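FIELD: query
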Amino acid sequence: MQIPEAALIEREFVIRDMQLSKDVLMTKKSLLRWLALAMGLISPNESRKTILELLEALFYYQFSENKDPDVHEISGYMRENHSGEPVSDKTILYHLLQLKNAGLIRREKGRYSFSVSPYSEKGDVESSIEYNYKNRSDVAFSKIQEALRALRKLYKTK
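FIELD: result
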């Protein structure tokens, strides 16, 4: 049985305030995991690594190649750089859709890039991610404030 309030949820996002230790800064793998945890893309103790491999591919193409990859390039990068069972294109597309729905990436002409803030240039991933999260939290807080004002009114009319 679904709780009726669940239908009211438009979007959910998590931001974690985490220590950024010297150990984390030493490797790409630890930085990717730290970022995914801090941005709420994975949960603590999560063992699934597809989203981490996908983020690695996106950052590689953004920072090293300065290009927007398509799903085949992402898949190829993941296959070449990670041992184990290959990830299907369907799984990659699912995770890309989740990142797109979160507003972190966009798809244009079959190519994926990080969403661009209206105040930054293409390739400024830091500003774009900050803008995305701040914008989403501003919208959520404005609704919280509206609900609190309505609640205050209801208590004053008693």
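FIELD: remark
Strands lie at 105-108, 111-114.
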